[in-house]
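Many introductory courses stop at the sequence. We go one step further.
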Amino acid sequence: MTAGESSGSVVRRILLGSQLRRLRETRGITREAAGYSIRASESKISRMELGRVSFKARDVEDLLTLYGVSDGTERESLLGLAREANVAGWWHSYGDVLPGWFQTYVGLEAAASKIQIYEVQFVHGLLQTEPYAHAVVSRGIPDAPRAEIDRRVALRLERQKVLVSERQPRFHAILDEAALRRPYGDRSVMQGQLRHLIEISEHPNVTLQIMPFSFGGHAGESGAFTMLRFPESDLSDLIYLEQLTSALYLDKREEVAQYERVMGRLKADSPGPAESRDVLRGLLQLL
């Protein structure tokens, strides 16, 4: 299984769910009626349409019949999508330390063609060095055994491979200076992290900007967020907002547009990539 296939399974699940929802709404069929037709609940239909569960071929076939999809080519296309959507991603092997609500995000991150992030608490996971990641995870779950911490760090490092993969996304990161001033680990860990940021910011698919304290208040007042864009034209842009025990995904056009405006202002107000590297070098000299 290739990385592209495994990550794409999440996107295909969401695509299939959205197409099933469109077909159901076009026919004027309620979720309750759709659930009855496949011997399931209304909530099961809701989860399917949101792409949050795997698909049984029999269920998809029955729903397509209910929705009046009789064309053989169209049926086979959607059933093929269902088969591809059930391919397990590489991250499933980390199920012991990966919350179910975060598995969806990891798949979407790996499938995105463009990732834009704003981070204020610490260096974003895709940019962390191994020692820095250890310090962040250890601080976050101080009572966890070393084996669990090592597994969580390994997962984070595995995620980072997307930035150097064959189908690497464009990655634009804006880090608040607070994320760089707040120490995780000892002096050598922070020095190594800052050097890594300088190095990775030179990669052609990576753009890194630092929002400095000197700018004062800025557009990122609502906190950290991630914007994901996908190569599939049928899949809308997503805003990912992580919480302590769950996450929110926003895909309504007006909500996504608000975050796009915030990201645009952060880009305009932060020093450019070259100047941001100078900021990083200045912070490095202070350590």
